[in-house]
Amino acid sequence: MLEGQEKIIFQKIKEILQEARNKVYKVANNAMVEAYWNIGRVIVEKQGGNDKAEYGTALLKNLSKEMTKEFGKGFTIANLKNMRQFYLTFPKSYALRSELSWTHYRLLMRIENDNARNFYMEECIKSNWSTRQLERQITTLFYERILSSKNKEKVAQEIYKLEPQPKQAEDIIKDPYVLEFLGLPENMDFLEKNLEQALIDHLQKFLLELGRGFSFVARQKRITFDGRHFYIDLVFYNYILKCFVLIDLKIGDLTHQDLGQMQMYVHYYEDKMMTVGDNPPIGIVLCADKSDSIVKYTLPKGEKQIFASKYMLYLPSEEELLLELKKEYDILEQEKNLEDGK
To answer: Using CA atoms, how far apart are residues 51 and 48, in angstroms rounded to an integer?
Structure first.
């Protein structure tokens, strides 16, 4: 435990490191925003300002393929469209603000009213809003509310009670957008607890061995909606059923939010990832509570009952999943007790 002079020295060093990390983030963020603006400019100029032309669609598709091959994640067709829209929304580069991140700009681009967009931009800078705070203000019509309110100060201060203050630099630097731009891999330790990771390790192996027709696709598969990132623990493709199988593992009690989130994943794969001949995706939510283990299968609306019955022939049954989950949980608990000297 530090005391006296040591504590003062430690605090000073902490401030130096925090300031340095902030500078690193700002440099990386400014470079990313500038690069994406310029990419958008090049695309718009090449398309002649017409994104509906056949050539424009083909251009984005080909660019996405080549850029992903060369630079890794972050250059999907949707992201390239965002960069294009970024340039169209903010055509003057000198008007870009260094205080705002790429995610800030992605949110601001959704605002059609120029006056409202400029208001949110200025307020965001003045009040140092995080992206979560900005998103909440936009979705709750803060611009309209503040204009019509007689107690503007009270309305303005409400956000700090509803959303936490901006992240520290060490948290922001883990943002997937920043990591993609810098060409750095995401550290999965940031995303899940150690126990949960160990269970996922085992489930991945178990399903490949026991499941009929399973092919591994991805682990911690990231999908993004309006700048918010979600991670699916395991994604498989079953070539017998001809469908994706999505698996999420939860530590603790299963909630309706967990099921709703899996339903969102299933709908996303149904809308964006299915190809001709594919059957509806299957979502499995596993709850690994000490006292009980629950498994829920989720299918999209309108699924055929024949298919719902058929998939049980090729997927491990609930009993098999629960038994394996409990067995692995007990093994991990025993190992933890040995490490703790119990």
So the answer is: 8
Encoding tokens for residue 189?
């330790």
Is the pLDDT reported for residue 113 higher than 50?
A: yes
Query: d(Cα 285, Cα 298) in Å, to the nearest integer?
Result: 8
Contact (CB, 8 A) for 331 and 201:
no
Residue 190 binned pLDDT confidence (cut-offs 50, 70, 90): very low
- DSSP for 318-331, written as a single string: HHHHHHHHHHHHHH
Q: How far is CA 32 from the centre of its chain?
A: 18
pLDDT digits (tens, 9 = 90+) for 134-150: 887 787 777 777 776 66
Give the model confidence (pLDDT) of 286-334 as tens digits: 776 545 667 778 877 666 666 667 777 777 777 777 777 776 666 656 6
**Are residues 254 and 285 in contact, defined by beta-carbon separation less than 8 angstroms?**
yes
Query: DSSP state, 90?
Result: S
Alpha-carbon distance of 103 to 82, in angstroms, equals: 11
271 Cβ contact list (under 8 Å, min separation 6): none
- DSSP codes joined into one string, 276-308: TTPPPPEEEEEEE-SS-EEEEEE--TT--HHHH
Q: Is 248 helix (H, G, I), strand (E, B) or coil?
A: strand
In Å, what is the CA distance from 307 to each residue of 211, 246, 260, 285? Answer: 17, 16, 22, 19
Beta-bridge mates of residue 232: 221
> Both tokens of residue 254?
């299963």
Secondary structure percentages of the chain, helix, strand, coil, to 5: 60, 15, 25
Residue 285 corresponds to which tokens in the numbers above?
């939510």
Spatial contact of 28 and 181, defined as CB atoms under 8 Å apart: yes
Characterize 100-134 residue by residue with b for buried, 16 or more Cβ atoms within 10 angstroms of its Cβ, and e for exposed. Answer: bbbbbbbbbeebeeeebbebbbebbeeeebbbbbb
Taking alpha carbons only, the member of 68, 64, 44 closest to residue 56 is 44
